[in-house]
Amino acid sequence: AATSEGSPDEAAPKNAKAGDENPEKPAVEKLIKDYFKSWSDQRMRDYGNCFADDAVIQEVTRTGELYTQMKNPFVTTQATYHKMAMFKAVEVPVKTTITFEAELARAVVYWKLTAGPRVQYGYDHFTLVKQDGEWKIANLIFYGVKTPEE
Fold first, then answer.
1. C-alpha neighbours within 13 Å on the C-beta side of residue 134
2. Is the dihedral of CA 5, 10, 12, 13 positive or negative?
3. How many other C-beta atoms can be found within 10 angstroms of the C-beta atom of residue 109?
4. DSSP letters for 63-103
5. Start-to-end Cα distance in the chain
6. 3-state SS track over 15-29
7. How far is residue 135's CA from residue 128's CA, in Å, rounded to a whole number?
8. What is the pLDDT of residues 16-44, one digit of tens each?
9. Residues sharing a CB contact under 8 Å with residue 134, sequence separation 6 or more, in sequence order
10. Per-residue DSSP letter, 6
11. Cys-Cys with 38: which of 46, 89, 97, 109 at CB 3.0–4.6 Å?
């Protein structure tokens, strides 16, 4: 879409030309991998370090309500979940899509959670920002889905 300020190319985000791979993509992929691995390995300090200082985490509940927490209470809740769980929980990314726009990166991850006999699928929607030169999660919104998607 052309703007009054110039051609469509001038309005496009940097590093977003068709066919170009964003040079930041490997760093974002590493953050996403570390996020899932640290949670599954119950390394909660490393898990917390995936988030920006004032990150906001939101869960869409099964009833469609939005439950919002800041980083520190959320990480504490996740640590408590692991300590109280009857079965070790492991969450792995099944499919990841990453896009970039100016100063932000976005990642949508379709995941699978296994905890003993329980298997659940869902989505994490990440908005990422660079903080002290490293990509961090500024916002995460997540939810489970009723049936696995192919």
1. 12
2. negative
3. 22
4. TS-EEEEEHHHHHHHHHHHHHH-SS-EEEEEEEEEEEEETT
5. 33
6. CCCCCCCCCCHHHHH
7. 6
8. 444 568 999 999 999 999 999 999 999 99
9. 27, 31
10. B
11. 46
